[in-house]
Amino acid sequence: MKQILFSGSDKTVFDNMESFFTERGIITQWVDTAEKTISAISTGENFDLVILHEEQPDMAAKELIERIIMKNAMINCVVLSALPEKVFHDTYEGFGVLMQLSPTPDREDAGKIMDYLSRICAISNDTTQKPKGEKN
Question: Is this structure's pTM higher than 0.85?
C-alpha cells in the first residue's frame, strides 16, 4: 500500500491513523467532502485505500462508495461508522467495503487495516503464481 485518501469533514478524526501510516512511509491525503473525494480519485492519483467517515457533509456514504467504485473498482474502502454490525452489513453489502471501524479510529485500527490488506495481498500473490512445474 502506497497512498491513502481520508474523506470526512473533521480532519482530526484521522490524526491517529495518519501518523501510523506516515511512520510506515505511506502517503496520506485528506479531503473534507464527498465531491472532493470523487475529484481526487478522478485526477488519476493512485489511491490504494479510501477511509471515509460515514457522516459526509454533501452525500450519503453509500452513494460515495458507489461513485468511487464507478471511477476505480480497484480502490479498497473502509467506513468509519457507528451503525450496529448487522445494519452496517446490510447497508454496504455488495460494495466491497473492507471493514467498518469506529467513528473515532485509533492507531490499533490502522494496524488492523494494514494486517487485513497484507493478508489480501498474500492471497492475491498466491493465486497469481504459476503452479510448480508449469512453464511460462
Answer: yes
Q: How many CB atoms lie within 10 A of CB 92?
A: 20
CB 32 within 8 A of CB 55: no
Question: How far is the C-alpha of 78 from the C-alpha of 109, rounded, in Å?
Answer: 11
Cell output for 43: 485526477
- Averaged pLDDT of the chain: 90
Residue 31, strand partner residues:
7
Which phi and psi angles does 52 have, rounded to 5°? -120, 145
What is the DSSP pairing of strand 27-31 with strand 3-7? parallel
Q: Please state the φ and ψ torsions of residue 96, each to the nearest 5 degrees.
A: 70, 25
Q: pLDDT tens across 113-133, in order? A: 999 888 877 776 765 555 555
> Is pLDDT at 136 greater than 70 in this prediction?
no
Say which DSSP state 72 is in.
-
Instruction: Tell me how far apart the alpha carbons of residues 29 and 50 are, in angstroms, rounded to a whole number.
Output: 10
Q: Are 49 and 80 in contact (CB under 8 A)?
A: no
Q: Is the dihedral of CA 121, 109, 101, 34 positive or negative?
A: negative
